[in-house]
Design goal:
188 residues, alpha+beta, Chalcone isomerase, 5-stranded antiparallel sheet, 5 strands, 19% helix, binds heme C
Length: 188
Protein backbone atom coordinates (compact mmCIF):
# COMPACT_ATOMS: atom_id res chain seq x y z
CA UNK A 1 0.00 0.00 0.00
CA UNK A 2 1.57 3.27 -1.10
CA UNK A 3 2.09 5.58 1.79
CA UNK A 4 -0.19 8.53 1.83
CA UNK A 5 1.93 11.64 1.23
CA UNK A 6 0.47 13.42 4.16
CA UNK A 7 1.31 10.62 6.60
CA UNK A 8 4.80 10.38 5.16
CA UNK A 9 5.42 14.09 5.77
CA UNK A 10 4.20 13.81 9.32
CA UNK A 11 6.43 10.79 9.97
CA UNK A 12 9.44 12.76 8.70
CA UNK A 13 8.58 15.69 10.89
CA UNK A 14 8.27 13.43 13.92
CA UNK A 15 11.66 11.88 13.18
CA UNK A 16 13.25 15.29 12.72
CA UNK A 17 11.81 16.52 15.98
CA UNK A 18 13.01 13.44 17.81
CA UNK A 19 16.50 13.97 16.40
CA UNK A 20 16.53 17.60 17.50
CA UNK A 21 15.00 17.19 20.90
CA UNK A 22 17.57 17.89 23.59
CA UNK A 23 18.82 15.25 26.01
CA UNK A 24 16.66 14.97 29.11
CA UNK A 25 17.70 17.85 31.34
CA UNK A 26 20.21 16.93 34.07
CA UNK A 27 19.36 18.46 37.41
CA UNK A 28 21.80 21.37 37.68
CA UNK A 29 24.47 20.91 40.35
CA UNK A 30 24.22 24.11 42.32
CA UNK A 31 27.67 25.52 43.02
CA UNK A 32 28.37 26.15 46.69
CA UNK A 33 27.75 29.84 47.39
CA UNK A 34 31.06 31.35 48.48
CA UNK A 35 30.37 33.06 51.79
CA UNK A 36 32.78 34.81 54.10
CA UNK A 37 32.85 35.98 57.72
CA UNK A 38 29.73 37.87 58.70
CA UNK A 39 27.68 36.44 55.84
CA UNK A 40 26.29 33.33 57.52
CA UNK A 41 22.78 34.20 58.64
CA UNK A 42 21.16 33.00 61.84
CA UNK A 43 19.51 29.87 60.41
CA UNK A 44 15.72 29.93 60.57
CA UNK A 45 14.44 27.21 62.87
CA UNK A 46 17.79 26.41 64.46
CA UNK A 47 16.08 26.00 67.84
CA UNK A 48 14.57 22.76 66.59
CA UNK A 49 18.03 21.40 65.68
CA UNK A 50 19.85 18.77 67.70
CA UNK A 51 21.86 20.04 70.64
CA UNK A 52 25.60 19.81 70.26
CA UNK A 53 25.93 20.60 73.96
CA UNK A 54 23.42 22.08 76.37
CA UNK A 55 23.79 24.46 79.34
CA UNK A 56 27.54 24.92 78.87
CA UNK A 57 28.66 26.46 82.18
CA UNK A 58 30.90 29.52 81.87
CA UNK A 59 31.04 31.10 85.33
CA UNK A 60 34.27 32.84 84.29
CA UNK A 61 32.38 34.72 81.58
CA UNK A 62 29.18 34.87 83.71
CA UNK A 63 27.38 33.05 80.93
CA UNK A 64 25.48 29.89 80.07
CA UNK A 65 25.60 28.68 76.48
CA UNK A 66 23.41 26.48 74.31
CA UNK A 67 24.99 24.98 71.23
CA UNK A 68 22.90 23.62 68.34
CA UNK A 69 24.00 21.73 65.24
CA UNK A 70 22.34 21.15 61.87
CA UNK A 71 21.67 17.74 60.33
CA UNK A 72 24.93 17.74 58.36
CA UNK A 73 26.88 18.16 61.60
CA UNK A 74 25.34 15.02 63.06
CA UNK A 75 27.39 13.04 60.51
CA UNK A 76 30.62 14.27 62.13
CA UNK A 77 33.06 11.68 63.48
CA UNK A 78 35.92 11.97 65.94
CA UNK A 79 38.32 10.74 63.24
CA UNK A 80 37.20 13.00 60.41
CA UNK A 81 35.59 16.02 62.07
CA UNK A 82 32.54 17.67 60.59
CA UNK A 83 31.44 17.52 56.94
CA UNK A 84 30.97 20.43 54.58
CA UNK A 85 27.56 21.96 55.13
CA UNK A 86 27.95 21.86 58.91
CA UNK A 87 26.54 24.81 60.85
CA UNK A 88 26.74 25.39 64.60
CA UNK A 89 24.74 28.03 66.42
CA UNK A 90 25.75 29.05 69.93
CA UNK A 91 23.45 31.14 72.13
CA UNK A 92 25.30 33.07 74.82
CA UNK A 93 23.05 33.83 77.80
CA UNK A 94 23.94 35.99 80.76
CA UNK A 95 24.04 33.94 83.97
CA UNK A 96 21.51 35.26 86.50
CA UNK A 97 23.13 36.95 89.52
CA UNK A 98 22.15 37.27 93.18
CA UNK A 99 21.81 40.75 94.70
CA UNK A 100 25.36 40.40 96.10
CA UNK A 101 26.69 39.82 92.60
CA UNK A 102 27.43 36.12 93.02
CA UNK A 103 25.96 33.86 90.35
CA UNK A 104 22.65 32.16 91.05
CA UNK A 105 22.49 28.37 91.03
CA UNK A 106 19.39 26.33 90.27
CA UNK A 107 18.24 23.23 92.18
CA UNK A 108 20.47 21.21 89.83
CA UNK A 109 23.50 23.20 90.97
CA UNK A 110 23.85 24.82 87.58
CA UNK A 111 23.94 28.46 86.60
CA UNK A 112 20.56 29.98 85.76
CA UNK A 113 20.02 31.45 82.31
CA UNK A 114 19.03 35.11 82.17
CA UNK A 115 18.78 37.22 79.01
CA UNK A 116 20.18 36.20 75.63
CA UNK A 117 23.23 38.34 74.82
CA UNK A 118 24.55 37.02 71.52
CA UNK A 119 24.00 34.39 68.87
CA UNK A 120 27.23 33.07 67.33
CA UNK A 121 27.20 31.10 64.09
CA UNK A 122 30.01 29.09 62.52
CA UNK A 123 29.75 27.03 59.36
CA UNK A 124 32.02 25.29 56.91
CA UNK A 125 31.80 24.58 53.23
CA UNK A 126 34.09 23.88 50.33
CA UNK A 127 36.25 26.87 49.48
CA UNK A 128 35.06 29.12 52.32
CA UNK A 129 38.51 29.18 53.92
CA UNK A 130 39.86 31.07 50.90
CA UNK A 131 38.44 34.33 52.28
CA UNK A 132 40.27 33.99 55.62
CA UNK A 133 42.67 36.76 56.55
CA UNK A 134 46.36 35.85 56.35
CA UNK A 135 47.38 33.42 59.07
CA UNK A 136 43.84 33.01 60.41
CA UNK A 137 42.45 30.26 58.19
CA UNK A 138 40.50 27.77 60.28
CA UNK A 139 40.10 25.17 57.55
CA UNK A 140 36.93 26.13 55.67
CA UNK A 141 35.08 27.59 58.69
CA UNK A 142 33.57 31.08 58.65
CA UNK A 143 32.03 33.02 61.53
CA UNK A 144 29.23 35.50 62.22
CA UNK A 145 27.89 37.15 65.36
CA UNK A 146 24.45 38.60 66.11
CA UNK A 147 22.66 40.44 68.90
CA UNK A 148 19.61 38.83 70.52
CA UNK A 149 17.51 41.12 68.30
CA UNK A 150 18.95 39.42 65.23
CA UNK A 151 21.00 42.46 64.20
CA UNK A 152 24.68 41.93 63.49
CA UNK A 153 26.84 42.50 66.55
CA UNK A 154 30.01 44.56 66.54
CA UNK A 155 32.13 41.56 67.60
CA UNK A 156 35.10 41.18 65.30
CA UNK A 157 35.21 37.84 63.54
CA UNK A 158 39.00 38.04 63.71
CA UNK A 159 38.67 37.28 67.42
CA UNK A 160 36.57 34.19 66.62
CA UNK A 161 39.29 32.97 64.29
CA UNK A 162 42.13 33.73 66.67
CA UNK A 163 40.50 31.85 69.54
CA UNK A 164 39.32 28.82 67.53
CA UNK A 165 42.59 28.50 65.58
CA UNK A 166 44.62 26.82 68.39
CA UNK A 167 42.23 23.84 68.29
CA UNK A 168 43.84 23.03 64.93
CA UNK A 169 42.46 20.83 62.17
CA UNK A 170 42.87 17.79 64.45
CA UNK A 171 39.83 19.05 66.42
CA UNK A 172 38.29 20.72 63.36
CA UNK A 173 38.70 24.10 65.15
CA UNK A 174 35.77 23.14 67.40
CA UNK A 175 36.35 23.90 71.09
CA UNK A 176 34.11 21.28 72.62
CA UNK A 177 35.13 18.58 70.14
CA UNK A 178 36.31 15.99 72.68
CA UNK A 179 33.44 16.65 75.04
CA UNK A 180 30.88 16.27 72.25
CA UNK A 181 32.30 13.01 70.87
CA UNK A 182 32.69 11.56 74.37
CA UNK A 183 29.03 12.35 75.02
CA UNK A 184 27.96 11.06 71.61
CA UNK A 185 29.76 7.74 72.04
CA UNK A 186 28.43 7.32 75.59
CA UNK A 187 24.88 7.77 74.23
CA UNK A 188 25.30 4.98 71.69
C1 LIG B 1 38.32 33.83 73.72
C2 LIG B 1 38.06 32.66 72.91
C3 LIG B 1 36.88 32.62 71.97
C4 LIG B 1 36.46 33.57 71.09
C5 LIG B 1 37.01 34.96 70.89
C6 LIG B 1 35.35 32.99 70.36
N1 LIG B 1 35.12 31.72 70.77
FE1 LIG B 1 33.72 30.45 70.02
N2 LIG B 1 34.12 29.19 71.53
C7 LIG B 1 35.09 29.33 72.50
C8 LIG B 1 34.98 28.26 73.47
C9 LIG B 1 35.87 28.04 74.69
C10 LIG B 1 33.89 27.47 73.05
C11 LIG B 1 33.28 26.24 73.75
C12 LIG B 1 32.02 26.61 74.50
C13 LIG B 1 32.34 27.39 75.77
O1 LIG B 1 33.13 26.94 76.58
O2 LIG B 1 31.79 28.50 75.91
C14 LIG B 1 33.40 28.07 71.81
C15 LIG B 1 32.40 27.52 71.06
C16 LIG B 1 31.89 28.06 69.92
C17 LIG B 1 30.87 27.46 69.11
C18 LIG B 1 30.31 26.06 69.33
C19 LIG B 1 31.22 25.00 68.68
C20 LIG B 1 32.51 24.76 69.45
O3 LIG B 1 33.57 25.24 68.96
O4 LIG B 1 32.50 24.12 70.51
C21 LIG B 1 30.57 28.35 68.14
C22 LIG B 1 29.52 28.19 67.06
C23 LIG B 1 31.41 29.51 68.32
N3 LIG B 1 32.22 29.30 69.41
C24 LIG B 1 31.41 30.61 67.50
C25 LIG B 1 32.20 31.73 67.74
C26 LIG B 1 32.09 32.96 67.00
C27 LIG B 1 31.13 33.23 65.86
C28 LIG B 1 32.99 33.82 67.54
C29 LIG B 1 33.27 35.25 67.17
C30 LIG B 1 32.17 36.18 67.13
C31 LIG B 1 33.67 33.10 68.60
N4 LIG B 1 33.18 31.85 68.70
C32 LIG B 1 34.67 33.65 69.37
C33 LIG B 1 36.04 30.31 72.53
C34 LIG B 1 35.99 31.46 71.78
Amino acid sequence: MPMNRHVFALACLALALAACSPMPAQPPVAPVAQLKDGELPVPAGYKSWAKFLSAVQRPDAKQVREIYMNTEATAGTVAKGFPNGTVFVMENYAAAANPDGSLKKGADGKLVKAELLRVFVMGKNEGWGASAPEGLANGDWIYAAYMASGEKSADSTLTCRACHLPLTASKDFVHRYDEYFAKASAAR
